[in-house]
Each structure stands twice: as C-alpha cells, then as structure tokens.
Amino acid sequence: MKKYLILLFILPMLLIACTEEGGFPAMPPYIFFDYDTNTYVIDPDDYSLCDNPALKEDSIIGRIYAQNMFSSFRYGDVEQGQDELGDSLTRVFTCAVSLADKTADFDVPFTLTDRTGNTVTVPFHYRMARPITSYEVTMGAQYNPYVGFFFSFADQKVYSVNEMMALPDPVGFCFGYNINKREPQFVSPSELINQTILPDYKGSNICSFVSVPAIKGRAITEGEFAKMKNDALMMNLNPIEWGTYTTATVNANMAYMFKNEEDTFRGMIFVKSLESGVGGQVQLIIKMQEANPY
Questions:
Q1: pTM for the whole thing?
Q2: CA-based Rg of the chain, rounded to a whole angstrom?
Q3: What would the pLDDT profile of 147-193 be if each residue is shown by its tens digit?
Q4: Which of 57, 140, 165, 171 fits as disulfide partner to 147, beta carbons 3.0 to 4.6 Å?
Q5: How far apart are CA 5 and CA 191, in angstroms?
Q6: Residue 132 contacts residue 228 (beta carbons within 8 Å)
Q7: Can you tell me whether residue 13 is helix, strand or coil?
C-alpha cells in the first residue's frame, strides 16, 4: 500500500520539481500499473470476475510518467505519438485485452519513450490458472487437548502445540484464541506471543491473511468455495485492495486468503463451523496451490 501511494502521489510532484533549475537529475520514463500488480491469472472455465465477462476481456489500467515529456507509447495494437500524448508529464491509460480462447501464458508489452530518447519496456503478464489441492481439517485452539493447533504447509498435517514447537522451522498457520481481545484468530507462527496465544514461542516464518467475504459483489459462500478448481481467484486478489496481516479474526461461514511472506505461495480457507474460546475448535476447507515450495 505504501509503495502504491508513494508512486501515485509523490512521483508526479518529483517530476515537476525536477524540471526546475537546480533540481534532481532527469528521471527516466516510468510505467505504473494500477493496484501495484502486473499479472492476471486466467480461469478458462469462468470469466465472471474479469472486467468485461460478456466479451471475456480484461482491462489493464495504469499511468505513465516522463519528466522530458512523451515521444511515443506503444501497447497491444495501439501506438501513440506526440500529437496524441501532448506536453503533459503524466497520463492515464487503459488497454483492453481479449482472454477468449487463450490456452497458454502470454505477455502484453508496454513501451514508453521520452523526447530525449530514453525508453522503458514493461510487460503485463497473463498466465493460465494452475491446479490446487484441497483439504478438510479440524483445528483446535491452544488449550484444546484433542485437536491440533498448527496446519503445516510442508505436509498438510495438523500438529498440536507441543508437536509444532518441536518442528525445526514450521511453515504454516495456527488457530488460537486471543485472550486480551477475546476473539478466535488465524495467526502467523511469528505472532503467537504478541497475540497472547502462547507465552513462550515465536516462529521465524510469516504467514498473513485477509478475509474475503465477496468478490465484485458475489458472496464467497461454501457453495461458491466448492466450485474453486484452480488458483485464479486467490492469485487475482491484488495487494492494494486485499492487504494481508499476520492475524485475522475468525468468523464462521467466511472465506480467507493466506500467503507466505514472499507471496510465492497462496491458498484460501473457508470456515465451516467455529467454537470460540481457548479450548475451542474450527472446521476448515483449505485450498492451496499445488506447486508448493515447501
């Protein structure tokens, strides 16, 4: 979020400042895609969440900057010159991309040249959806003596508190009860002390979460969650609208997206049932990318 705001609001002011005598050295031209994302994952069986479902089209929206003003801008089948671009330092662009009948990954290159000859090319990536794996598990809060507390990404098993603490470097997420806030939570192993769930354990691996009640007005119910057969939905949740945190309050009949610290591995959770408290438990459907780095 901070990166997005800096680029969107601060960069134009820097470009203007650079034009004044004694300013900073000239900046190269710059292409920025909305929501700080340069990838869209195509679900060939469901176009309902793309920008124009009827035409099976996606829209790439962004902004271009050039301190030395624009000479040319090319993307897709469009080429704009100085007459179209004018003398401004920044412009918004929109590029419609057909997704119909696509069966392989492809890129849409954007090339911007300023009037001193500096050129930058930035691709927007489209890739086909990839397989996911699905699990149904029951997890227990920290003082539940019967049900495990930690779900491991490495082997997709649920471990008790003591079993998790014995693992050399656990990667996954925990279900616990925050005593101070009096709420059940999904928690990164790195946050267990801070969230008053375990008093003496802090993992090194970070997992983060965001609740996903609906996408473009379509509620993510258990039935909708069951239809998810690939990673398109989870991968198209951009980091600006769907910023993640190392904890999330758990609610029944709610979907959540989770990812690792590097954002190289994602999954989604649906909460089928919930019993709150330090001895509580939760029933989950977990779907995550089949290509698992762990």
A1: 0.87
A2: 23
A3: 999 999 999 999 999 999 999 999 999 999 999 999 999 999 999 99
A4: 140
A5: 27
A6: yes
A7: helix
